[in-house]
Design a protein that fits this description.
This protein is an alpha+beta fold. It is built from 27 helices and 7 strands. A hairpin with a 5-residue loop joins β6 (about 650-655) and β7. α3 (about 40-55) packs antiparallel against α4, α13 runs parallel beside α15 (about 280-295) and α25 runs antiparallel to α27. It is globular. The N and C termini lie far apart (about 115 Å).
């Protein structure tokens, strides 16, 4: 049966590639052989563009060569549509090669050119692909922005096909967040559009996505029904890339049914088709599915091969969702093999990728879209209700218009209603202003909360999770005492980092919630500096860094000693973080008439102008890795700025890349007062 299918698929491949593509090649040859042929003929260039598109998923190198040629001819001829379409096909080439940034660059060029020349269809098509690339990067906020812009253009000019495609793509964003119900809302919209258009091929594409979603929802009978319809259409039309996708979905359905042998059968059919097409992105889900099936059949060694292939392919094209899934499976495989070091590596990689794909900003953007959809539905219902009400009003008007007296009464009533409406509008405006003020206050509190949760989620949960994992392995006997002790130095560094981060979080949280009170008193600066040098000496010794203290004895300032302690500790900690081994840090103070100018200088990595500009911003959460990959919360300098200003001082920095950094801040001096003699 497998041999028979292989022969059928081979014939499908030949037929699929020789139909439309051969027609285009023949048309190009006819044009070239005509007596009036010119390479600047727009029909010839457009056929080149169409031919390049036909090589997608079949021969990317040929696609690239033809697209470059059509772009060059379009630019020489001034054929704008050809230039836009050439940029678009080049964007598809780089996308399939996994070079997302270059794909975005070419799609952006196509979009800008289409917008400049009011080519609305090409602009909408390019925006959709641009949004898709940001989705591949996991930047769902940007992806949604472009998808919504595409929908606006499609609705304005009634591009139904594009509108349905965008609904499919938005559904995939929700599928990445495991929000299957909301994904199904958009897929059903797309299905309704295709049923209205009457194109069975486009309908089959949406039905295959619906089948995959039903499989994820464990609605397996619905999934099987939809995928079988899609398979029948794609086999008839000989669309290999979609047929491979449908076979993979059918394998997933059998996997969900725990029929692993049948799952592998359909996965193998998809794998055979992938030998005929170039679709690395689609192949990743196939490899992960086969990994799961072999694991269920206790064939761990085979599963490991497929999981590693999926992982390497995901890294090659930069697909973070694929990295997440394959890393999770590899962690399980190596745990079963008792290779805890590799298991921990893939587990940590899975956690980092999972958290980045589930970031607060992405969830917020998707929830905003969900709210907008609900609002549009309510708005549509209100429009229908208003239309019904207006229809009734027209009947009443037609009846009452006969009688002039009643008409006069109606006019009077309308006038009175307008006065009441004006009064209501005034009240609504006043209430709106009150609500906007309250909303601004709540938004500020919400930003503070989000920042705290973001830092706790990204900077504390990772080390704590790793620590818990090690303790669990040790407790369950899956790790020896010697193996556990090998991780102790790393655990100490993680716990020290957590402690330092918590101290900064508590201090920053107090300042944000207006709970921090500055209590000025006479403060001995040299004592605070010595204490912090002693506190950080172990870190300095570990990196062979010399800390030079040039603070004069009995250097007194007028400040809150606890806040000055936090400022000094953060600046010294930052200097240690970004100073390489055998470096030097100098802390000193210049006593002026009314202020004391304190400085912390290092000969470390230094900073660019862009980083310096963002360093002390209130909402900045900029984090940079140190010379030994040390990581902080990004709160330290923001906290320093707030506390320096609470002590009536200023803070600034001088820095250049590769030349180190120098942080300065001023604090008022304690003034000696002498009584005048009588």
């Amino acid at each position: 049966m497998v041999v028979f299918l292989f022969i059928v698929i081979g014939n499908l491949s030949i037929s699929a590639q020789n139909s439309k593509r051969d027609t285009l090649i023949q048309e190009l040859e006819d044009l070239k052989n005509s007596t009036s042929f010119s390479a600047k003929d727009t029909l010839y260039i457009q056929n080149l563009v169409n031919l390049a598109a036909e090589y997608r998923f079949h021969n990317l190198d040929t696609l690239f060569t033809i697209s470059k040629k059509s772009l060059d001819l379009s630019q020489k001829t001034g054929y704008i549509n050809g230039e836009i379409s050439s940029y678009h096909t080049l964007g598809g080439y780089y996308s399939d090669k996994g070079k997302i940034d270059q794909a975005i660059e070419y799609f952006t060029k196509a979009y800008n050119l289409a917008a400049e020349h009011d080519q609305h269809f090409l602009k909408a098509r390019t925006l959709n692909d641009l949004a898709k690339e940001y989705g591949y990067k996991g930047e769902y906020s940007k992806s949604l922005k472009w998808y919504l812009s595409t929908i606006e253009i499609a609705e304005k000019y009634d591009y139904k096909n594009i509108k349905s495609i965008v609904n499919d793509n938005i559904a995939h964003l929700y599928l990445e967040q495991k929000d299957y119900e909301q994904a199904m809302v958009f897929l059903q919209r797309s299905k309704a559009i295709h049923e209205d258009i009457g194109n069975p091929l486009f309908l089959a594409e949406t039905l295959s996505n619906i089948a995959s979603t039903y499989a994820d929802m464990n609605e397996l009978e619905y999934a099987m029904y939809n995928v079988n319809i899609s398979i029948a259409t794609f086999e008839k039309e000989r669309i290999l890339e979609w047929l491979a996708y449908c076979y993979e979905i059918k394998g997933k359905i059998y996997l969900k049914k725990n029929k692993n042998t049948w799952a592998l059968f359909w996965y193998k059919q998809s794998e055979l088709l992938h030998q005929e097409i170039e679709d690395d992105r689609g192949k990743i889900d196939l490899l992960n599915g086969m990994t799961e099936a072999f694991l269920n059949l206790k064939k761990d060694s085979v599963a490991e091969v497929y999981a590693l292939n999926a992982f390497e392919l995901s890294k090659k094209i930069g697909l973070r969702s694929g990295i997440k899934t394959s890393a999770h499976k590899l962690s399980k495989i190596f745990k079963e093999k008792k290779d805890f070091e590799k298991s921990l590596y893939y587990h940590e990689l899975y956690q980092v990728t999972y958290e980045s794909l589930s970031a607060i900003s992405n969830e917020k953007a998707l929830n905003m879209l969900k709210t907008r959809v609900e609002y549009d539905q309510q708005k549509q219902q209100l429009i229908l209700d208003n239309e019904k009400a207006l229809a009734k009003q027209k009947i009443y008007i037609y009846v009452f218009i006969v009688i002039l007296f009643i008409f006069a009464i109606i006019t009077l009533l309308i006038h009175r209603n307008e006065q009441a409406q004006k009064k209501l509008n005034l009240e609504l405006r006043n209430k709106k202003n009150d609500l906007e003020e309250k909303q601004a206050y709540l938004n500020e509190l919400n930003q503070t909360k989000n920042k705290l949760f973001s830092i706790i989620g990204h900077d504390l949960r990772g080390p704590i999770g790793a620590f818990q994992g090690l303790l669990k392995l040790f407790k369950e006997g899956e790790m020896t005492k010697d193996e556990f002790l090998n991780f102790v130095p790393k655990l100490k560094v993680d716990i020290d980092t957590i402690s330092f981060t918590l101290n900064n979080l508590l201090s920053w949280g107090q300042t944000q919630m207006n709970g921090s009170i500055t209590r000025h008193s006479v403060t001995n600066l040299d004592c605070i500096v010595e204490e912090n040098i002693a506190l950080l000496s172990e870190i300095a010794e570990a990196k062979s860094i010399t800390i030079v203290n040039r603070i004069e004895p009995n250097c007194q300032i007028w400040s809150d000693p606890n806040q000055i302690d936090i400022i000094i500790r953060n600046l010294l900690s930052n200097a240690l973080k970004f100073t390489p081994k055998n470096g030097q840090i100098i802390i000193g103070a210049i006593q002026k008439i009314k202020t004391c100018e304190i400085y912390v200088k290092d000969n470390g990595m230094g900073m660019s102008e862009d980083i310096i500009a963002k360093l002390f911003e209130k909402d900045s959460n900029h984090t940079t890795y140190g010379t030994n990959d040390e990581k902080g919360t990004g709160l330290g300098l923001s906290l320093c700025k707030e506390m320096v200003e609470k002590n009536n001082g200023k803070i600034w920095v001088h820095s250049a890349l590769g030349k180190g950094s120098s942080f300065y801040f001023t604090i008022p001096r304690i003034q000696k007062r002498y009584k005048e003699s009588a």
